[in-house]
Write a structure and sequence with these properties.
With about 160 residues, this protein is α+β, with helices and mostly antiparallel strands. It has helices at about 50-55, 65-75, 85-95, 100-115, 120-140, 145-160; strands at about 5-10, 15-25, 30-40, 45-50, 60. The longest helix has 22 residues, at about 120-140.
Length: about 160
């Protein structure tokens, strides 16, 4: 069980800080929910407390693990299918794990593909979402601004770091 003030990651949505734990009646059922405030766009997310483990909710990585994430971003791209549909399914599966290493791989691979040939509209959206997920966790882990993190990601992926 997490408590108010904990920094957690909600797979496919990103990281945030628990602002409250509230009981809500939804579809006739009363359940406890974490109220998560995400650092992007003044968004609040309700996560059922009793199924947070099943969903894959986890704590934000400690700041000393950020170099590992940057290393993943700088590593060689993973071999991906040429077919955008298969590639999209593989990337979606990685994002659903909620693991920061998998999210970083998706960001790296899609950014590099986009430099060689333009991504499909769906993959552009996936890249944007994956970047937002990655940046939201790094913001909470490092207390760094989004713009600075975006630059660091860009530099790592392009080999400038």
């Amino acid at each position: 069980m997490y408590t108010i003030g904990d920094r957690i990651v909600y797979p496919m949505h990103g990281a945030g800080v628990i602002e409250a734990v509230e009981e809500k009646k939804i579809l006739g059922e009363v359940r406890k929910y974490y109220i998560l405030k995400v650092p992007f766009g003044d968004i609040k997310i309700m996560i059922p407390c009793d199924s947070s483990d099943v969903i894959g909710v986890r704590e934000v990585i400690p700041a000393n693990e950020t170099p590992k994430v940057m290393e993943i971003l700088a590593n060689d791209s993973t071999e991906m299918p040429n077919n955008w549909n298969r590639r999209s399914r593989e990337n979606m599966a990685k994002l659903k794990t909620g693991e920061i290493g998998n999210v970083a791989e998706v960001v790296r691979n899609l950014m590099r593909i986009d430099r060689v040939k333009k991504l499909s509209t769906g993959e552009k959206k996936m890249l944007s979402n994956a970047k937002q997920i990655l940046i939201s966790e790094l913001i909470l882990s490092n207390n760094e601004e989004a713009a600075a993190l975006e630059t660091r990601i860009e530099e790592a992926v392009c080999g400038l770091e």
